[in-house]
From TrEMBL:
ATP-binding among keywords: yes
Cross-referenced PROSITE patterns: AMP_BINDING
Domain AMP-dependent synthetase/ligase: 93-477
InterPro entries registered for this protein in UniProt: Ac_CoA_lig, ACAS_N, AMP-bd_C, AMP-bd_C_sf, AMP-binding_CS, AMP-dep_synth/lig_dom, ANL_N_sf
Keywords, comma-separated and alphabetical: ATP-binding, Ligase, Nucleotide-binding
Molecular-function annotations in GO: 3-hydroxypropionyl-CoA synthetase activity; acetate-CoA ligase activity; AMP binding; ATP binding
Domain annotation AMP-binding enzyme C-terminal: ranges: 544-622
Gene Ontology biological-process entries: acetyl-CoA biosynthetic process from acetate; carbon fixation by 3-hydroxypropionate cycle
Enzyme Commission number: 6.2.1.1
The protein's enzyme class: ligase
Stated name of the protein: Acetate--CoA ligase
SUPFAM superfamilies referenced in this protein's UniProt entry, alphabetically: Acetyl-CoA synthetase-like
Similarity section: Belongs to the ATP-dependent AMP-binding enzyme family.
């Protein structure tokens, strides 16, 4: 079965609404529908419910300070430490021997950290960071794959009040340097390598190359030895230190968690925007942690005794919020996996669900589409009965994929939460609550209690049910970004310009997604409305890719758009004009692909590079991207009358269909 079509039972194909079972509802953390009203009537005090999930040194004075909107402050006056909340308090509560992290390497090697183990290693690494000169508020860059040392380093940073900036390991050396430069980060924690589909990858080479591009002094680099004997030949030089040796040197050391103000920065996370420069999204300690703990409790229904697995990479916000901070704040067991879902076989994830008796599983639609394509025999071969709840995130899920997930992974027993949110929102914003809501495949659901999300037209007026518009968030929430690092102006112009009325002190957050709403208030997300692509659930800026292509010798101009892709959702289509004297060739195509991989990483690799003598442009000289998208998708071409060069469209179409 190639597309999974025949694997969906006819009965399910027709069904549009699904209810959680009584059994699920009875045990759910949140099952009283009055919660929506309660939060609305009691806003913003309702958010105390989230703050109460944390342990504080000093209690906060105010829930929300909105005097300087949209620079909102939450839980002002309070002090706390995220590492204490995610680690120590569970040990103090007598749960030190509960598993915090169940890690599995691609080759099947495993490591288990109890909360006590985690506490020990977080302390030792925090002591090492201090000794290396890391002070409170220094940004520490973590360029690491999925090894347990990554969450340990995050928590060690949090312990000493040093914000971390995790750079996804799949990003290139250039991307690392850009992010370290932008954050003025003088410390790097990285790794010698990791395994992908059986091969050992040399990560250190990229890290070293990236360090060369850092335009300020780097005080220290720490390197985790993941590959052991499979490792590549890189001697540690100068200020480079081996993680294992540092831990040995600090064996048994403890570091008191630093009391951080509620609004102190917990971390930076770079994400793609409309322009070429990635945006440093700033999250703070109390609001973010309270929000991820609360949504892990209410949406993921996590209990301390659960084993929970989010198959994302910690290098993205999903991993920050729902592998590390949310689940660990609740004292849950979180699973981490190093490799790909199809190694050594396509049942790897289901084998792990069975082995660890995973209760709650959270993944992305792109993965579900791949599972469907591979066929249901892979999950069918395993006992997945431990699962209680399923979740998805990152892109729209079509009803067919939703139902396949429901039937083949959840055995029609597990509710599914389709959670819409963003790097900037810190945590989930629109989704059903699994113990309350009717599920409608394809629609994320209503905004969470306390979240004022609306679907509006270009004027900001709410649209009628069924009509497409844009999603906005009209009230602040604790997990929201506070600003873009060192760039308040860009923060204002990126998110608050479109719909706010500063004179009236009315601030409306614009996430740049299209959406529609139905008569029950259920929101269906239609996708980005800016120049950002969503490739396999990863957010990539077209401008970033274009500037990488234009950086290749011989390229005069480039336009990048997203084309539909069965598994990835969207794929990168690059239309390229060469300079005079350069010819279209396989070599040139490879150079372009290499240029993108070097500037960003393999995830941004163009699916197709189409050489063309011209790009379709309007009379004012703007590239008509809509047409390029239609061409990529081999759709019928819309109106071309406003083009100054309409004849080029046919030529490009012919090329795309030949490739
Ligand atoms: O377009 C939306 C899409 O992913 C974007 C955010 O990307 P990022 O900041 O990388 O965070 C991804 C993980 C939270 C959004 O603007 N998106 C995210 N979740 C969904 C979604 N689109 C539809 N349905 C979702 N559940």
């Amino acid at each position: 079965m190639s597309d999974g079509d025949g694997e969906l039972e006819a009965r399910l194909v027709e069904q549009e609404e699904f209810e959680p079972s009584d059994e699920f509802v009875e045990q759910a953390n949140v099952s009283d529908p009055d919660i929506y009203e309660e939060f609305e009537e009691n806003w913003p005090q309702c958010w105390e419910r989230a703050a109460e999930m944390l342990d504080w040194y000093d209690d906060y004075d105010t829930v929300l300070d909105d005097s300087e909107g949209p620079f909102y402050e939450w839980f002002q006056g309070g002090t706390l430490n995220a590492s204490y909340n995610c680690v120590d308090r569970h040990v103090e509560d007598g749960n030190g021997d509960r598993t915090a992290i169940n890690w599995e390497g691609e080759h099947g090697d495993t490591r288990t950290y109890t909360y006590e183990d985690l506490q020990r290693e977080v302390n030792e690494f925090a002591a090492a960071l201090r000794e290396l000169g890391v002070e409170e508020d220094d940004v520490v860059t973590l360029y690491m794959p999925m090894v347990p040392e990554l969450p340990i380093a995050m928590l060690a940073c949090a312990r000493i009040g040093a914000p971390h900036s995790v750079v996804f390991a799949g990003f290139s050396a250039d991307a690392l340097a850009t992010r370290m430069n932008s954050a003025d980060s003088r410390f790097l924690v990285t790794c010698d390598g990791y395994y992908r589909r059986g091969d050992a990858l040399d990560h250190m080479e990229k890290a070293n190359e990236g360090l060369e591009g850092v335009d300020h002094g780097v005080d220290a680099t720490v390197v985790v030895d993941r590959l052991g004997e499979d490792g590549f030949d890189h001697d540690l030089k100068g200020n480079q230190h081996d993680w294992g040796e540092l831990i040995d040197d600090h064996s048994g050391d403890t570091v008191d968690p630093v009391e951080r103000d509620a609004e102190d920065m917990l971390f930076l996370m770079y994400t793609s925007g409309t322009t070429g420069e990635p945006k440093g999204v700033k999250h703070t300690t109390a609001g973010y942690l309270a929000y991820t703990a609360w949504t892990s409790h209410s949406v993921l229904d996590l209990k301390p005794e659960d084993t929970y697995w989010c198959s994302a990479d910690i290098g993205w916000i999903t991993g920050h919020s729902y592998i590390v901070y949310g689940p660990l704040a609740l004292g849950t067991t979180t699973v981490m996996y190093e490799g790909t879902p199809d190694f050594p076989e396509r049942d790897r994830l289901w084998e792990m669900v069975e082995e660890y008796s995973v209760d709650v599983f959270y993944t992305a639609p792109t993965a579900i589409r791949a599972f469907m394509k591979w066929g249901s025999q892979f999950p069918d071969d395993h006992d997945l009965s431990s699962l209680r709840l399923l979740g998805t995130v990152g892109e729209p899920i079509n009803p067919r994929a939703w139902k396949w997930y429901y039937q083949h992974i959840g055995d029609e027993e597990c509710p599914i939460v389709d959670t819409w949110w963003q790097t900037e929102t810190g945590g989930m914003m629109v989704t059903t609550l699994p113990g309350i809501g009717t599920m409608k495949p394809g629609s994320a659901g209503p905004p969470l209690p306390g979240i004022d999300a609306r679907i509006v037209d270009t004027e900001g007026e709410q649209v009628e049910a069924g009509r497409a518009g844009y999603i906005t968030v009209n009230k602040p929430w604790p997990g929201m970004l506070r600003t873009l690092y060192d760039n308040d102006d860009r923060f204002l112009s990126e998110y608050w310009q479109e719909y706010s009325d500063p004179d009236a002190d009315e601030w409306v957050y614009f996430p740049e997604d299209g959406a529609k709403i139905d008569e029950d208030g259920y929101i269906t997300i239609l996708g980005r409305v800016d120049d950002v692509l969503n490739v396999s659930g990863h957010r990539l800026g077209t401008m970033e890719i274009e500037s990488a292509i234009v950086g290749v010798e011989g390229v005069a101009e480039a336009a990048v758009v997203g084309g539909d892709h069965e598994v990835k959702g969207e794929a990168v289509y690059a239309y390229v004009i060469l300079e005079d004297g350069y010819e279209e060739s396989e070599e040139m195509r490879e150079k372009i692909i290499e240029g993108v991989e070097d500037a960003i990483g393999p995830i941004a690799r163009p699916e197709q590079v189409v050489f063309t003598p011209e790009l379709p442009k309007t009379r004012s000289g703007k590239i008509m991207r809509r047409l390029l998208e239609e061409i990529a998708n081999e759709e019928e071409i819309g109106d071309t009358t406003t083009l100054r060069n309409p004849e080029i469209v046919k030529d490009i179409q012919t090329k795309v269909s030949q490739d």
